[in-house]
Write a structure and sequence with these properties.
It comes from Cuscuta campestris. This is Germin-like protein. One of its GO terms (cellular component) is apoplast. InterPro entries: Cupin_1 (IPR006045), Germin (IPR001929), RmlC-like_jellyroll (IPR014710), RmlC_Cupin_sf (IPR011051). This protein has 224 residues and is an alpha+beta fold. The chain has helices spanning 2-21, 189-194, 204-209, 213-220; strands at residues 69-70, 76-81, 95-101, 106-111, 117-123, 126-131, 144-149, 154-157, 163-167, 173-179, 187-188. It is globular.
Amino acid sequence: MAAFHTSIVAILLLALIVTLANAYDPSPLQDFCVFDNTSTVLVNGLACKARDKVTAEDFFTSGLNTSTAEAAFPNSTFSAASVTTIPGLNTLGLTLIRNDYLPGAAIPPHVHSRATELALVLKGTITLGFVSADPATGYKNNTAYLKECAEGDVFVVPQGLVHFGQVSSDGDATTITAFNSQNPGFNFVPAQVFGRSLSLPQGFLAKSFQVTDQIIEEIQNHFQ
């Protein structure tokens, strides 16, 4: 067991090094730029705290040994090491998230428009996958790349591609996911398409999905 946990730490460190070396966000122009959550300045990113106000606490967080926040989809909770929990991550191009899943949980199709995702399975079995979007092949020939991942397995999702997951019904599951952006973007397709707050033109979704308005109405009722 100790050897396995050592391997996990090694994999995580390697993942972080790789994502840092190939970060999608612009490279920092100074040692650090700790996020100043009191600033009202609007920039492409987050404003920096005055250096004489920076402390070691700005580069630290805890709590990834568990998760308590409700995820954006059912049967999952999460905790994050992000720029909002570690202000010192600002401009460093990294985010780390822990997800815990109940048996049989479905991870809805979603997109990270600004980041590549590297997922490490800490517990359980999850089928992870993404769909290609190569215009040269035509949308009807897109390919779904699926892999059943068990404890200790790692799966990568290229930036901007629709991806998803299905947790085995045999037990709980846990993942740690690294992103090479401090703001990967979390665009969950079902909620964003069928959420009633969008006020899309009447009949648009029915035409797009080639179904009746009644079917669209039934789906939207789940995303109120």
